[in-house]
Amino acid sequence: MLKVTYVILMLMKKLKIVIKLIIIQIFYINLYAAPAENAKILLVGTKESPPFAMKNSEGKWEGISIELWDLIAKKLNLKYKFVQKDLEGLINGVSDKKLDAAVAALTITPEREKNMDFSHSYYITALSIAVKKEKNSYWNLIKKVFFSWNTLIVIVFLAASIIFIGSLIWLTEHKKNPDSFDPNPLKGIANAIWWAAATVTFVGDKHISIKTGWGKTVAVLWMVVSFVFLASVIASITLVFYGNTFNKKIALKDLTKEKISTVKCSTSDIYLKERKFYADEYGTIKEALNAVALGKADAMVYDKPLLQHYINRYYPEDIVLIDSSFSPQDYSIALQQGSPLLEKINQALLEITHSPKWDKILHKYLGNGEGRKQL
Prior knowledge:
Blueprint: H1 2-31, H2 33-38, E1 41-46, E2 54-55, E3 61-62, H3 64-76, E4 79-84, H4 87-95, E5 101-102, H5 110-113, E6 116-118, E7 123-132, H6 138-146, H7 149-173, H8 185-200, H9 213-242, E8 260-263, H10 267-274, E9 280-282, H11 285-293, E10 299-303, H12 304-314, E11 319-321, E12 326-331, E13 334-336, H13 342-353, H14 356-366
Parallel strand pairs: 1-4, 1-5, 8-9, 8-10
Antiparallel strand pairs: 2-3, 5-13, 6-13, 7-10, 7-11, 7-12
């Protein structure tokens, strides 16, 4: 009986030891489960979208989005390698779970959100329009100023105004001021028209004077109108000759009859299709802008900072960015749907984008005092 009791006690001790070992093992498995996840090399898709993602002279990726991702990866102890794709490849890669994440100038949209998860937005911008610069010779500019329908309308209006004012002055002056305005309608009105024409140029005629109250009232009003008119004409001529130095104001509605280029599968492509603008689709920003430069397209619609970067770098003499913004765009990091990294990335992203380091990154690539989120 004692032997049986002894055996039972020994078994119970061994069972306790086994249970303790199991508990310790479970504890260590849980303790090191997260680092094991981090030990996986993540496949992160990206594409050329300067200044957010681009390759330097050594073939290494850099840019706003790239530096942000690198800081997040260091915070979370993530190992990764970049895989270059086009925009369609990035979206499909994350949706099909062939890529763990996508980092570039990627916009959050309801359609994309159905097939993948997005981090918090880290940059806000908008769509804009790029058009070809008008290059005019001086002869063409002179023709535009002096041999156009608008110029003809101005000349006719001016001539009619001079005749009207001249006639009005003669009516108020010819009875009391016959020395300056002959009572004979033909001679008197001719003199008055000459006075009105001379007044437009502020030259005047010292041999002709206005004496009546009504005549002086008409004369003062005509001088004011002449000054405003002349100033407007000079401003218009200046704008024609130096118009290329100004940023034109064009809205999307002005492009209804124009050929538009954009990047295939981009948010600008979707935006245009939703509004019945059927644009020519290109694989890259440079290809779409090149179509504008070569005259194959009249305008390109795309993300404003990317357009500005490409124009400054490749087409400073050929293409201009219109001073127009529409359809706000939120840039974000794309992740597989249900990714366990989403919350950790969001936390790290918020910490980084609310630090001075983020301001330095934006200023490094955008300059001009850019900071935080910009529209």
